[in-house]
């Protein structure tokens, strides 16, 4: 059953996240998509093609995790299935943000390998579960593809063998991260973008 109070709260959280991330140049040109878990089977997710800095409640759609939409003729992004897959596989996840920052886009292309490890930064502790700057923050990296169903399966398979990921990058595309609340998820985005910027600067200095 859809909890309308929870939907109203989630809609406001998504709108506020959109404004903040747009102001931080994290979601240019209608890029990115956001969601909140509504229940064990439903999520609130942003509609396709919306400018994230100008979201309204009409731009927040309700769907199940397979992206079967409820009560609307509007379209969710194809990438909404990536949100649904994460909610299926990570019961602790209650918010997911996908952004297109410059640092994420560039670093995902220049890094060799399928995992980016960010180590030695004090801001690592901004991530849920990280208690020390010595704890690596790890992001999986996947090749970009238009086959979202296949990508969701690849993410699922990776999570089954690597439960300590704090998010993942899609090459030349952007970042996905999740957390137990929208407040924590926004903190993750801010911290990860800062950390990736630091990593890029360090690589320039080498």
From TrEMBL:
A family per Pfam: Aldolase_II
Occurrences of domain Class II aldolase/adducin N-terminal (ranges): 12-200
Cofactors: Zn(2+)
The record's free-text note on cofactor binding: Binds 1 zinc ion per subunit.
Biological process terms in GO annotation: L-methionine salvage from methylthioadenosine; pentose catabolic process
The organism's place on the tree of life at top rank: Bacteria
The entry's keywords: Amino-acid biosynthesis, Lyase, Metal-binding, Methionine biosynthesis, Zinc
NCBIfam families: PRK09220.1 (NF006672), salvage_mtnB (TIGR03328)
Function: Catalyzes the dehydration of methylthioribulose-1-phosphate (MTRu-1-P) into 2,3-diketo-5-methylthiopentyl-1-phosphate (DK-MTP-1-P).
Similarity remark: Belongs to the aldolase class II family. MtnB subfamily.
Designated name of the protein: Methylthioribulose-1-phosphate dehydratase
Native species: Cobetia crustatorum
Name of encoding gene: mtnB
